[in-house]
Design goal:
alpha/beta; 10-stranded antiparallel beta sheet; 7-stranded parallel beta sheet; 30% helix
Length: 506
Amino acid sequence: MFYFVNDYFVALNSGIEHAEIKRAQLFKHQGVPAKIVTQSYNSMQYANKMRFGLSQDQVINMYDYFQGIVDLIPKANNQPTIATLNLAADYNVLPGHNVSHVYDGDRLVMDVHFMDGTVGQLGCVDHFDQFGKKVLRTLWDYRGFKSREEFYSDNGDLVGRITYNPAGKRVVEEYFALNKDDQLYLSSLQLVNYRQQTLYFTNHTSLFSFFLDELNRLGGDQAAFIADRPGIAYDAVLAMQTKAPKYVSIPTTHTVNPKDQVSADLAGIYANALVKQVNQLTGIIVATEDQKQDLLSWFGGTHSPVPVFAISQIVVPDQIVQAAPVPLAKRHYHEIIVVGHLTKERQTDQVIVAFQQIYELVPDARLLIYGYGDQQNALTEQIKQAGLEDVVFLKGYQPDLRRVYDQAWLYINTSSGDSQPLALGEALSHGVPAIAYRFNYGPAALIQNNVNGYLIENDDISSLAQQMLRVLTDDLQWQTLSHNAYTSMADYSETNVMAKWQFIFK
């Protein structure tokens, strides 16, 4: 069994989770047992798996495991509603789509929140004291049972958290206190009555590491652990007490300077795993051969303390490889797309500036931006100030973009750095010509100038606009670029990527 270790798996995921999803599906199609492993509590865990097309056995969560609900499936017509709360007869309910307010006379006693994507199914309930302060929150699991209670002090600080199994028995207890600087800290963490004993842990990482050890014991000598998210996933795998192959996957550029991955200082999130505890690892995984060579150079030459392997995060499913090409006539004319996290590093504002330059020449062009992040408000204001509200659209986060790619005319990536841009590979595999800045890592390996797209030097907005205009105004050129985009992704087929994973199978 192969465990891809992460912190969380939620409704809005980052590139790390999307890479894990691709890898999990790859392993499933190849008949190799594998699971995504997560630490954080999530009452929507089951629904999130379904949302991303994962089966019940492809994701395992630490709290689900201790609650004994790994295999629990929601019962039809058994979703808890506000009626489940058995409210006092004299309470008044002010109903709402997302939250209903419950009053005792004119005093608010409860806010009943409903789960996203459901009609009236209990999500969580906030309880208020006579002074209007929240003292208790109860959370309901998507599968239909009260799963957790959170307790609050008069100052609104979280003081306790208890997680339950479906029978209502406590399984994990967490208590919090304020230190001398009035900062909240975890003062007690208990795994209650686990195999007839209560176990105490100093922090969530140690509990997570214990959980990974339990999975390892279940897997015997056939388990391997790949830590995908820096932080708790790295630390938990490195702290495991049982023996197993242990790898860390590097999801971003590895130094503090995206343009210098050889001599710049190592990014702090990697210091513990790649320097202090590197001897605990079986190997290091990066997404591209270029990053592998740069990391080896950073270590001081052709050798590193442990082996470094280059394995693509991009995986083109067989069904995409075998699908018929989508011709120009069936696509949305002059539709440009951007896909990715809306952060400063993605430099999506530069795409909007370039689009503004070509819009007067291609008045039917449209720019669709898919993703979420802290730059959403700034981008919204930029679009408004440029007067582009009718032609530039922030489309939000969508878990499945296959139809979007099949309709798109052109894909743009203006990131300043990335380990390997997943969306760029996805766009090319759907026959979408791509224009990208030349950054570490990925675009140079995916794009050939004037073959399947164009590479632009970072921050060269003028050249970006020129190449966008070139693709949008030459249909014959687009046909050539699109054909080559399809064929250029052959190296990223399931068979070829799986072959790179063979080092773990030995």
